[in-house]
Each structure stands twice: as C-alpha cells, then as structure tokens.
Amino acid sequence: AEFSRGRDINLLYAQLRLFFPVVTCSKPRSSRNSSIEAFVVCQGYRPPAGFHPSQLRALLADAEEGAHGADGVIGDDYSQRCLVPFVACGDLSGWDADRSYALDAPPLPPVQPPIAPPYKTAVELARAGAK
Which positions fall inside the Ribosomal RNA methyltransferase FtsJ domain (predicted)? Predict the structure, then answer.
C-alpha cells in the first residue's frame, strides 16, 4: 500500500505488525528522493488469536491512544520506538527524477521561441560580459 512517510510511521508500523510478522517500508528508485511517498509491503498475514475483522476499528483506536506520551504527544517514549526496515527498490540504473542527464543527441531549438521573454535583457548582458 502507498503511504506518506512521516512522524507517525512507528504507529503505522506497530499496527501492521499486529497482523503481519514481516513489514517493510520501500521506495522505488523511480520515485523522487524529495517525495515522502513510499510503500509498505506486508508478508505472512497472521491475525491475533480470536480476532474478527469487525474488531479492527476499536483495535486501531486503542493503539493510537496508547502511542501518545503522558503529555499527549506521540513518540516521547524512546524505549517504545522501533527501527522500521526501509528498502530502496527497483533498477539501480534507472533515472532519478531529481537529477539532470546529458543528452545523446544535440538539443533542438524550440519550434516557437518566446516573443519577448522577461529574461532577454539578462541573457544579453551576460553574453556581453562573457566576451
């Protein structure tokens, strides 16, 4: 499932571990590094003994309330935190959306250049100073 990595990732991880022994957070290489988007992969579904799907709402509400510290802030108790495995996946030779790459062919000029671009004077001054 897709989710946004954030400060409550430990809560999500703990909730999923109630049902799955193996929970891994992953991010495809094709996804921008600056994006907080990631995916969670859960393996080996094993619900708790006596669990019925209708109990899920109450179970998740209790887990969220238990995650708050004494002052009501999530994550103050460092002894309760766990290390969430995170895997960057995908083809390691793929394109990175946050990088620029050299072209194999010469670039083509635009079909219709701007008529009066606001940066025209700055470009002309820069070219004149470079000569």
Answer: 5-45
